[in-house]
């Protein structure tokens, strides 16, 4: 099964195999890198059980980023990180991907590709460091901080 890291690795392997001289390669690398970051965000939205927004203009991508922007302390330990990653995806990465995929009359430079890869790597790494849902984190803390009430009663 393919995951977000595989998409980002595909972008990096494509660049390593073909170089950045061909604009089509640069655009394709940017596309795969963006989708690696997007799917990492999408996974985080589900893992953190963030709110679902049915009516968001901009489609499914905007809906995922809107959910991330709604992240608060009761969802995870570092909601500000989640919101910052959403901002980066929505305001930096997505416009680069739209440029790569749809604005073919405008050149897509090596710098555009490099920016996309850099931001996608940072978003993917950032998502990986976001803790589990706060409920799970609190449950694990309870389980590791001495015996539970049930264990105490048994002894």
From TrEMBL:
<protein>
    <recommendedName>
        <fullName>HEPN domain-containing protein</fullName>
    </recommendedName>
</protein>
<feature type="region of interest" description="Disordered">
    <location>
        <begin position="136"/>
        <end position="155"/>
    </location>
</feature>
């Amino acid at each position: 099964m393919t995951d977000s890291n595989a998409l980002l690795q595909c972008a990096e392997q494509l660049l390593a195999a073909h170089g950045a001289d061909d604009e089509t390669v640069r655009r394709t690398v940017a596309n795969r890198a963006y989708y690696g970051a997007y799917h990492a965000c999408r996974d985080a939205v589900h893992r953190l059980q963030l709110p679902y927004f049915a009516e968001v203009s901009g489609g499914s991508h905007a809906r995922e980023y809107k959910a991330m922007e709604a992240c608060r302390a009761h969802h995870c330990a570092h909601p500000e990180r989640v919101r910052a990653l959403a901002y980066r995806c929505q305001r930096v990465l997505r416009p680069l991907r739209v440029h790569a995929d749809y604005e073919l009359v405008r050149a897509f430079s090596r710098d555009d590709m490099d920016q996309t890869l850099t931001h996608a790597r940072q978003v993917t790494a950032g998502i990986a460091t976001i803790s589990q849902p706060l409920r799970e984190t609190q449950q694990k803390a309870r389980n590791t901080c001495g015996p539970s009430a049930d264990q105490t009663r048994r002894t």
